[in-house]
Here is the input.
Amino acid sequence: MATREPETGWHGEDSDVNHLRGRAFEATCLAATAFGLVSVLLLLLFVANDAFRPFSADAGWLATYAATVLVPLAALAVYYYRLDEPAGEVAYVTSGLPVVGLLLTGGFAVLFIELLSVLEWFALLISLVVAGGLIAAHGRLRPKAALERLAVVLLAPIVTVFGLPPTSFNRFVTDTAAALGLDFGLYYRVISLREAIMMLPFVPTDWVMLLLTLVLPVAGAAGWFVEQRRESRRDGLAVVGLTTAVAVVGVVAGPLLGIGTDVWLLVVTFAVLPLGVYVEGVLRRGEGVRGLAFPVAAVLGVVVGSVVTGALGFAGPDPWLDWGFLTSATSRTAADAGIYPAMVGSVMMIIVIVLTTFPVGVGAAIYLEEYAPSQGLMGKFVTLIEINIGNLAGVPSVVYGLLGLALFIRVLQWPQGSVIVAGLAVGLLILPIVIISAQEAIRSVPDSFRQASYGMGATRWQTIRQVVLPEALPGILTGTILALGRAIGETAPLLMIGAAASVRLAPNSFFDVASMMPRQIFSWSSELDPSFRHGVLAAGVITLLAVLLVMNATAIVIRNRYQRTG
Amino acid sequence: MRDNTMSTETPGPNITSRPSGRAARERMYRYVLLLCAATSILVTVSIVVLLARDAITFFTLVNPVDFFTGTEFLISRNVYGLLPLLSGTLLVTVISAVIALPTGVAAAVYLSEYASDQMRSVLKPGLEILAGIPTVVYGIFALVYVTPFLQTIGLPVNTFNILSASIMVGIMIIPMVSSLSEDAMSAVPDSLRQAGYGMGATKFEVTTGVVVPAAASGIFSSFILALSRAIGETMIVVVAAGSRPRMLNLSDPLANLFQGYQPMTAAMVQINSADSVSQLGFTSLFAIGLTLFVITFLLNLLSNRIAARYREEYE
Here is the structure.
């Protein structure tokens, strides 16, 4: 051990000096810990100031809102922190859930506006359900035919859906086939169930389709969850019934209030339903009920504040980051510039990553944790894989961009800067992170669970599917959300695969050229005009960071809630 | 890794009704999952092969010796010398290391030895947040806020300069140093500390004389990982460090800090986004990329080796 020999006599003889030295050392270390945090916090304050320009408002406006919103909320926060910790968590979740819900609503709304119509979504989902039914039926009828099953599993979705959500995938397939001289006339002759539904002369109205394919399934899942938790079928059915009722009421009453029916259904699904289930649970348990005061106070404060400022005629601030910024395309003039097309690009890129990287990463983690032999040739191969994954996590992001450029654009000749290329390149970048975090989650499932399952005669795959994965799911989700957060912010790969510097129109297919949020922000950073540099740029940075913050907070809440203790 | 005493086959007496289909299915799942795991090898292989393919094309036209020892990098005149780009990378790495390594270790010491539970619960997630901020945002911090700040305090920095970029790179890699070093320090058993106290040492002496030396291999490996991250950092230097490849000025070292440089990563981005670039210039992108990949890959391997080899085993 590397302890130094004391030079002379005992330690501590000159205790005053030592005391001082120890204190100074501790203070230095604390300062070092705080250095990065404080400097970034200061920089963030500068950016937020540039983005929101709070001091462009009247002093009266600021004072009113400080009195109606800030002071009550701060008082409540102090109260929760000091006296009522469970209520603090309730306050945190009830304020956070609507934000996450609205973010999801926004994501789906973007999906329906830009990517596929409600009818297309309806047709796609029905086709997938039919494909799932076919696979299940085959399993019932011919349970022994494993190879045949593999064929059915692969072919059933292809036959019923024939392609990915945007119809351009069909075009891509036919065009690629045509380019290779193989013209099967696929697009015209084999009409999938999805396309057949699309061609139906009579289709239900949009809201009926959304209700059937989005609200009811999600409500059903929530109902099932409640039923499992409370072991009460009635409560589960009540959740489904109430959600449907609220949705239908909103559809009828929505137009009177000026809310679009589709938006209303999305809000019900992603914000009202989870919030309702959570609040009901809090009220029933009677634990931390006071936490509900926080969101109520926030809403009341904003309402009162707006009434007072309206009555007294105080002018609000003129922020760069406002609704117009979020919903318009970029522009040469700073005042008109917005981030909308880039947000759509980011959302679509995330869809590609979730569909490709997530299954592969989790699959790899399952193999490495549950199957991998530790001896023999395969054992060596597995060790190689593990070391390799560790190393891939340290490869610079720009190299992944170069890989994307070389593989997808130069070798496979996919369109430069398209969403799918961006998604795959960034997906490869986060693959090692997804694998490593999923491995940790799977490893934390106690071995006794597996032994119990084997003891009941379950095979290894049954054990994994029924025991290990459900137990590890929160951990896997946490890791994946954090990795997706990393993916949203990555810029260098986007530059290498040629994502557009800025686009006016949002992409509406995975093969469209698109810009993503960080790419758009980077383009703004080279503008010299101060209204870009200290306005639009700051607004873009805050938007990106807000999305990241919400994602990370969600991940942390999931982790804290389901963390395995002991 | 899990030991493999558990057999995949269903146990002897067949409780289940249809064993053959089930065994086949089990095998199928195993192979599908193995395929997922093997993807990572495929990624590494394709990085090496695809980068090498174009890099070799480049090196058949440009002498590798000229490439690695050339002191000028000018695509428009087909002069490809790596040294100016390496100078930029070196500067960023050194300056950020000067900031991040001592700060990171001190933070690790504080978190592992001094911090109360409450402080830890605030500071640790805080440092994680630093690591989660997108690098393009750090670049914008450097360009829009730090550089003007440096100018106001009287430093003669250019609009694009290596100093503010490196400061932000340094802040970005602090969490990497601190979290890995803290893991190493927390792994030092308490009995060693107690032994130190038993000999009459103060907390300061135990920390600097016992804990830090005992955790040295972990700390060192975290240093190397952080350096590798700084070398590969792209967006901060692209946004804030300028786009002029430049050799180090050895006669006036301080002046180097205030100028713009173009590190390797930034050069790659610029070559790729340039409007008109010759075929040769474009392939130089892959030569630089391969060099970068090899450097960072070796550093990562080295870091793993150090952590594994010189780790002091307790118990």
